[in-house]
Amino acid sequence: MALFGSKKDEKSKKDSSARQKQKLSEATGNSTIITRDTHIEGTITGNDAINIDGKIVGDVKIKNNVIVSKNGTVIGNIHSPKVICSGKIIGNIMCDHLEVLKSALVKSAINADGVIVYGKIEGQIEAENVNIELDGLVTDKIQAKNVNISGTFDGTIACDLLSTKGTAIVKGGIYVKNISNQGGRIEGSIGQYKDVITSDKSQAIEKQDDIEEDIRKTD
Q: How many percent of the chain have pLDDT more than 70?
């Protein structure tokens, strides 16, 4: 019988932490740095990578990597090929690849090709592939081709293939074409992918109102 807190799980967490630090180091190579005590209001655009350790209130449109460090905050929309977040993002994210690291909190509507979650996302995700890792938590809605869960999800999933590991906890409505459950816990209803009813306009407006309210609270 497997025991909680096994050496295997501890090693997996340490390896995961080391990989995250390496990714941040590689991504921040030659970048513009917004320092910890810097507060910027307004839209930021550019071609170079940007490392945000301070606070930005406004949209970030960068043709390179956007890195939000552990102390960093972005209150606004982000449009970039790759976003790596250890801090806080409140706003919509459009990118090719998003990584939400362990210390991160992201409150967003996300549109991306690939999403990897070690931290926390509160918001809707539309992507090709979504991976929720061991300590990851996602709440709201995922619409994707493939969803792999080792952590926790609470909301609605619509996908072609849902794969859950033994550590997974999945709650809510699950609408899939195929499911592979390797011992994870699933609580809620399971239906066919074709039965999914997409969010209507009023729900989208309500979600945007929630994001704007979060922005006002942080001002």
A: 74
| Spatial distance between the Cα atoms of 184 and 144, rounded to a whole number of angstroms | 19
113 inside domain: no
| Per-residue pLDDT tens digits for 42-59 | 999 999 999 999 999 999
Flag whether 114 is in a domain.
Answer: no
Domain end marker among 108, 136, 151: 108
Q: Are residues 81 and 155 in the same domain?
A: no
Nearest residue to 184 (alpha-carbon basis) of 212, 206, 165: 165
Total number of domains constituting the chain: 2
Write the DSSP string, 4-65.
TT-HHHHHHHHHHHHHHHHHHHHHTSSEEEE-TT-EEES-EEESSEEEE-SEEES-EEESSE
Residue 119 per-residue DSSP state: S
Q: Which residues pair with 178 in a beta bridge?
A: 161
pTM recorded for the entire structure: 0.79
What is the domain range of residue 68?
22-108
**Which tens digits make up the pLDDT trace of 4-25?**
445 555 555 555 555 555 555 5
SS3 129: strand
Identify whether residues 102 and 136 lie together within a single domain: no
